[in-house]
Structures are given as C-alpha cells and as structure tokens.
Specification:
about 150 residues; four-stranded parallel β-sheet; 4 strands; alpha/beta; Rossmann fold
Length: about 150
Amino acid sequence: MLNEPVPRNGARLLFARTFLKNPVMLGSVIPSSRFLIKGVLQPIDWAHAGILVEYGPGVGTITGEILKRMRPDAKLIVVEMNTELVRFLREAFDDPRLVVVDGSAANVRGILAEHGYAGADYIISGIPLGSMPAPVREHIVRETKEALARGPA
C-alpha cells in the first residue's frame, strides 16, 4: 500500500470514535481537508526536506500527502499519543521512509536522537496546542524550536 491514501471509511470511523473518546486530544471532529493540507505543505522545500516530523497525525490524512511529496531518501517520523491511532497508522502505510512513534511531541528531541538524528528540517503539527495547559504547550514549542535549530544529523 505504498503511498496509497488511507481507506476513507475505516479512517473516518476511527477518527470519529477517537474524537468522541477524547475531543481535546484531536481538536477537530473531522480530518484535515485537502485545502488545509495544501496550505500546510505548500511552504516546504521538498528538495531539501530530509528529516520531517509530524505531530498528531491522527489517521494519516496529512501523512499520506507528505509521503507523496517526499524524496526517496527522506524520513518522516510521526508522533502520536493514541495507541489505537498508532496501530492504525502502522497498518495503513507500508513505506520504509515512515517511522510511527507512540509518544509525545514534548519528547521530540529524544525521539529524533533515538532514530539517529540531531534534529529535523521540518516539523508539521496537527496537535491542538491551544487546548493544552500553558506549561505543556510552552515545553512543546521550546522542544520544537530546539529540534529545528539543530537540523538533521
């Protein structure tokens, strides 16, 4: 299923079920639209994007589009806290460039280091930062800034 879109019905049901269990974690009742995806991914210089990180990929709506645009030698590390979504992502995408991590964006530098990288070229966030307590949000923003400042190994 290399770079194929995530099956819509199964993904939508999982997304809706996950939203109902914990709406604050997802922040939206529906997955990202193609217009949002285009706007988020447009600024990326794909020729120079070697290491990318995606926070809160959910059911992989943006993940699939990132994989379509990535170089063959690039790496995408997605960080998801919901174990059910992690399992879904691991089954939905068969791409050696993708690493699905069951973890928190607050640990992005540690996650990158575990995979042999000092930093990332780009970090795309799908997590609802505005609904988090200020200390958590500020920690994630600091970690993200540090991960981007270091660049890839």
